[in-house]
Amino acid sequence: MNSSLRTLSFLLFLLPLSVGVYGQSSLDTDKIDQYFSLLEKNNRFMGSVFIMKDDETLYEHAYGKISEDGKRAQPSSKYRIGSITKSYTAVLILQLVEEGQLSLDTTLNHFFPGIPGSESITIEQMLRHQSGLVNFTNLEEYTGYMSEPRSREQHLENFEQIGTSFEAGSDVEYSNTAYVLLGFIIEDLTGMSYADALQERISQPLGLMLTYVGDGIDTDAGEAASFFYRGGWQLSPETDMSVPHAAGSIVSTARETALFYHALFNGELLNEESFEAMVSFEGPFGMGLIRFPFHDKTLIGHNGGIDGYQSNSAYQPEDEYIYAVLGNAVNLNFNNILIALNSIIYNVEFEMPTFETSEPITLGEEQLELYAGTYSSPGFPLQIRLFAEDGNMFGQATGQGPFPLTIYDERTMRFDQAGIEIVFEEMSEEEERYKEFRFTQGGSSFQFSLEPEGE
Q1: Which residue range is the domain that position 328 belongs to?
Q2: Is residue 2 part of a domain?
Q3: What is the pTM of this model?
Q4: Residue-level pLDDT at 130
Q5: Cα distances (angstroms) measured from residue 270 to each of 93, 98, 196, 202
Q6: Residues 410 and 325 in one domain
Q7: Which among 89, 221, 336, 385 would be 20 to 30 A from 41, CA to CA?
């Protein structure tokens, strides 16, 4: 395992809703360029940014490199967009509903009766993350096969074994498993691969020639490799795209990602009934969509994280702004990047960040084991397991995927992409290992203590 972001993920960026957004004048593109150039210069971000309003392109720029040998990113560079794929998958399913090939009330057992509880799991519940299907990318064994080809049979065998975590419709839990199964249903009903269905029903009709299901990364063809930062940008491992399938396998440019959402919200992909169903929210999720509150605005879209890529694209219905940020190297809380971009778009007061110059350090395996163990806090609902693998340190909260930790001194570790900092209490002379740390994220701090072995 290496220190890259491993799971298909989503994240929300939140700001106080009581504060109004200032009136908009022309977009300050110089400030956007200044901000992202500052991030690139300080090894915080590489990727592409695109902004449009109505049908007009307002900003398009690429930063950093797409390959180990230094090929510069271009606006035409293509990135793995991770879970943004789910918006495309939801559109394909709703198109099939329009054609009468299934309904939102159709249950999963019509296609895969071997899945536990499939007789009560509906297509709509799968689209809204209400299925209860255990999220396979959160399981520990996921990292052992994510870089290898995965057949439908292997996926189904795994999904039948891991089953569900709650009764369908009784709770909400993000599930990549549900979207992989939706992809298989698309294949069964169309008689073609998910990749071909995407091309025939979305990419070709919209003229999105740089949007497709990915394969092995080809930087010579303008596909961006992804990187993590450890004293310099290092190449991230590469997930085989048969693994995320319809949950996260699409490759696109920032422009074409934004154009997809533009087409969706302008009635080019679905009829009115299907569109209204897709953008109706129950809790945090629509169908393949997430809401992002920014002050008194609400944006609608999705985001994704796979390998070292992080991405977000969203549409603001009243102002008709659409942006896409596709990163292939992120060494900063991605939420902060999105907040900064939206602050500039909406003319909200914003100061350019400053960055510390501290460099990470490397510790030996014996030293890393001094931190390993399961920790808990009375004020935090999840336990956090720390473990060492291949000379790197990782954290993993209960029911979630592992995240890499960069060590800055013998007591301080950080996961900058999520704004997480862990600071250990000093060991006394009598102690043989670390037993307590302070966990900080988003302005909140919690004291964690080592759990006794066996608990």
Answers
A1: 9-355
A2: no
A3: 0.83
A4: 97
A5: 10, 8, 19, 11
A6: no
A7: 221
